[in-house]
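Exercise: predict the fold of this chain.
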Amino acid sequence: LPKEIVDIWIKNSDFLKPFKLLPALASCSLHEEQINEAIRYLEYCVNRLKSEDQAINNNLLILYLKYRPEELLEYVKVRKDQREIFFDELMIARLCTERSNKFLNEACVYLYTRMKWYEEAVELALNVNVDLAREVANSVQTDFNEIYSDELKKVLWLRIARHVIEKENDVNKAMQFLQELTETIAIEDVLPYFPEFVTIDQFKDAIRTSLAAYTDKINSLKENIDQAAKSAQLIRKEIQSIRQKSCVVNTNDSCAKCKFRLMTRKFYVFPCNHKFHSDCLYQTSLPYLIPSKQKRIDELQKLLHDIQTVPVISGVSGALSHFAKTKSNQQQIYSNEEILLLKSELDDLLANECPWCGEKILRSIDEPFIDPLDYESVYASWL
């Protein structure tokens, strides 16, 4: 691959497609001069032409890997934080591990980190230097799962600390790690890795720091428990006050839906002062009920009707009279307590909130007034 040929390719780059020249580059001999010319042309494509062709970038990296490993490291290092890359990082990482040397190992660490293989990256980085392993541990991202990221960071830093203690026999350096990473690892996490001859004096500061941290956590937990107890007490008082709440219903009050007198049949009253007949409430709430709740309400209403009882209003809802006496063998199947439970369940399903000003109506604010399937027929009826 003569230098003149590469010069012509570069000069006529506007008319040539670099990927079609790859077979010619691949067929060049192992002579150093030809390899340098092949690298020169591929570098021109990547750096000057900004080629995004994966084959071009892969071929350049393979040549770097074989003949200029330090430039492969520089290439990968520059692109370690780029969101989009144009080479096969998995293939290049595999080739780096096969040819293993200082530059390729470091390049492989950056590739592993890009692929989020953090544990493998730290393990390999420790064969290069501890600072590189620390760089990997600090690069763990928290965008996918914060809890998992914290646990992963702890695993990585423990691996680094263990290496420093066991391989480098540097207790002071390990203690320095502890001081820098008090939020990630504690003295008790690394104690099993220290040799038996280490004196307690070397751990004094770390132990004091750990005890102070535990004291702060205990005090914080006590405050949270006290706050939770106060909140629970307030909730109990609020529930008690709601149970004792009452409202006045006049004989001339009407149903909010049908406008007929409220007293004519069973009804519900809400804290917002909206009043509905029980059947009107069901019709009003129906569009906002899921099928399973609709089915259960129908079952409860039929069951209570068969027992021939009057629906009870408890709290914000109820009926005008108390339970009727059981008159048949069928009615005697249910005790008053069971009937109360059935009515309470019906109240929870049907009257847990006002259908006109509760959360259900607020959640439906973005729903169209007219069903898209019925739009044409409704529009035609207006003409």
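Check your answer against the key: The first strand starts at residue 267 and ends at 269.
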